Sequence to fold (89 residues):
Amino acid sequence: MLQFHLHWGDRESRGSEHTVDGMKYMCELHIVHYNVKYTVAEALGATDGLAVLGIIFEHVDGTSNPFLKVISPAVFFGWGGGLVYTMSL
Fold:
């Protein structure tokens, strides 16, 4: 894994970077991997250099998502922004 980052917005219905059937969701997590046959710099320019797993989170009234509390307390200080964690290689 190279990095993971979150996308969220100022409303629960429009934080995700991507849509499903035209609908945006509260948050989207991307886990970025690179092909180990390359250096990271080479992987960025190669057609088979990167693979990104996207996970979309949906808010359901009356529930809480403990996963988001673990990832970043910053999410709960207000909407808008993103969090990026890049691993040392």
The longest helix spans residues 40-45. The longest strand covers residues 27-34. The radius of gyration is 15 Å. Residues 3-86 form one domain.
